[in-house]
Amino acid sequence: VSTQSTGTFTFAHMSSPEQAKSVGDLFAAKLKELTGHSHSIQNLAHWVAFHRKRIAQIVPVWKEAVLAERSTTRAVPMLYMCHEVMMGTWKKRKTDCIEAFTPALQDAIKHIAKLGSKGVSSTDKICKLWEKSEMLAPGLMDALQASIGEHKNSTPGNGPEPYVPTTKEGREIGALYDAANACTSVCEQADKLSLIHI
């Protein structure tokens, strides 16, 4: 609370709770509310762009939050938010946000990619957009792609899509195949139970 005297009157200036917090603290609170919905991602990206003069306080909070995530549910929206900020400032011929996020990108991309197939596909998609825009140095792009590549073949769920028959005959054959597999599984279980009781 600060006071200011003007003649016979004294005014008290109360700082709001939001004003009392640093931009980093405010961003951390808003980041907890981030969802995968596009409006949520865009709203937070606009907030970051509005506070771009304090981007040095924002990026460390972002990186720490990304590395703390253990699933893509929140980590991927955080990446998309970063992309929105960087792309938005790039289109306005500004580089301050890009330069601020750059040192944190490789660790963030590597972490998200190792979270599963969704992480791999999302990081790969974003990196291709960055490469196309030429906003990042070629050397950094190579490093980011290498980080993703480490997990492309080892991540569960990244194999070919299962075959789904489209014709009536194919579906009937598939149903018979599934029934045969189910019967085999039941027989194997019965054999195991009979062995237990011998």
Element-level helix/strand string:
EEHHHHHHHHH
User: Would you count the extended β strands for me?
Assistant: 2
Q: How much is the average pLDDT?
A: 79
Radius of gyration: 26 Å
Q: Main beta sheet: strand number and arrangement?
A: 2 strands, antiparallel
Tally of individual helices = 9
Helical proportion, percent range: over 70%
Layout of secondary structure:
Layout: E1 2-6, E2 9-13, H1 17-20, H2 23-32, H3 38-50, H4 55-68, H5 72-91, H6 96-113, H7 117-133, H8 138-152, H9 168-197
Antiparallel strand pairs: 1-2
Helix pairs in contact: 2-4, 3-5, 4-5, 4-6, 5-6, 5-7, 6-8, 7-8
Structure description:
With 198 residues, this protein is mostly helical. It has nine helices and two strands. It has helices at residues 17-20, 23-32, 38-50, 55-68, 72-91, 96-113, 117-133, 138-152, 168-197, and strands at residues 2-6, 9-13. Strands 1-2 form a two-stranded antiparallel ribbon. A hairpin with a 2-residue loop joins strand 1 and strand 2 (9-13). Mean pLDDT is 79; it is low at 8-19, 157-165 and 192-198.
Descriptive keywords:
198 residues, mainly alpha, two-stranded antiparallel ribbon, 2 strands, 71% helix, globular
Provide a compact summary of the structure.
With 198 residues, this protein is mostly helical. Helices cover 71% and strands 5% of the residues.
